[in-house]
Amino acid sequence: MTFQDIIRLMIESFPKLLIQGIKVTIPLTVISFSFALIIAVIVAMIQYAKVPVLSKLCRVYIWFIRGTPLLVQLYMIFFGLPSMGIRIDGFTAAVFVFSLNEGAYCAETMRAALEAVPAGQVEAGWCVGMNYLQIMWHIVLPQAFRTAVPPLFNSLISMLKDTSLASNITVVEMFFSAQRITGRTYQFMPIYLEVALIYLMFSSILMLIQAYSEKRLNAYGGNRG
Length: 225
Hints:
By secondary structure, the chain is mainly α. It is 83% helix and 0% strand. It is flat. The chain starts with a helix and ends with a helix.
């Protein structure tokens, strides 16, 4: 291919990759991270409350997820479950695995944030007649989330990039589409460069949202003080 042909290919492929990123990569990230947050809060609260048996099960879950590769987890679910008679499509398998994987990491973030809330505030909640759930909802969790926002956003950005691994289980996301184009044209560098730039664009948007959120939270904390 001549230089002009490569430029023409990049111009033609960029919108296709961008649309696939918006249609599949972004939804996969948002859905998975939403479930991951739910898992993280539940697991963190169980550990924070030191619930018998459940706390140990949560530790085992975190230990296993953090100690095994994400790609292996994807293969276990997508290729392993059919051997047990359970069949799910690639997108569902990806959401399930990304949610469990990111949930384990975010659970540790949330646990640390919960433990950073001064014990005196919990005791004050008991003194005014609140029950445990009210204390968690009105006192502990709001402060914990303020502390956890920066690392949680970092996890979200990391997950966005990790969704490229879903191409290994037939999810037709942005990277999978790039592989199709390179398989047809054999122009690897320009196409993968475009994919990298789109991921960079998505990540930069999230970084801007992170900076804005942290600014608002800091202002809110300062006003309360």
